[in-house]
Specification:
globular, mainly alpha
């Protein structure tokens, strides 16, 4: 659980990949909870823009 999302795509993806570690037998779900108009929404938007940019998606 994040108590304030990071704006770093690298850090965010690394944390998610640690959940999907080798030997994990259960399904892992990633849920992002954010209040509309809050800072977490800004962080999620920034992370999505960075992810699209890194994949060459506009």
């Amino acid at each position: 659980m994040w108590f304030g999302l990071t704006f770093s795509l690298e850090l965010y993806l690394q944390a998610i990949k640690r959940l999907h570690r080798q030997g994990q037998k259960n399904t892992v779900f990633i849920h992002n909870l954010a209040i509309e108009g809050g800072r977490d929404v800004d962080a999620l938007d920034a992370l999505e823009r960075k992810r699209c940019k890194s994949r060459g998606i506009t």
